[in-house]
Amino acid sequence: MSSSDASRSSIASRLRIAREQAGLSQGQVAKLLGLHRPTVSQIEAGQRRVSAEELPLFAKHYRVSVSWLTKTEDPERDSVDPQLELAAKELQRLKPDDLQRVIKLLTAIKKKGGS
Hints:
Elements: H1 3-21, H2 26-33, H3 37-44, H4 54-62, H5 66-69, H6 82-92, H7 96-113
Helix pairs in contact: 1-4, 1-6, 2-3
C-alpha cells in the first residue's frame, strides 16, 4: 500500500469513527453536506478522496478537528482509542456540575462491573 493509499485509508477510517461518535447516519451526513449517500460511503471506504473543501465541513459536523481527521497513523493502532479521544472532547464541553455527575456515574458503573 502506498503512503497516499495509507493516508486515504486512515482518513476514511477516522471519518467513519467520528460520524458514528456523532450519532449520524451516512444519509444524514450526505444531506448536511449536499452529497449523495453513496458518496459518503465511498469516502468512508477509502474509494473516493475527500476534497480540501469537504474536510472542514466533515470536521464541523462531527465536532472534531481537521488535524484529528488527517492524522496519518492507523486509528485502530493509535495509542489513544479514537472513541476515548472523542469522548474526552465531549467531556471538556460539559459544565463542571455535569462533569461531576458523569464521573460519579462512571464510578458507579465501574463498581457494579467489579473492575
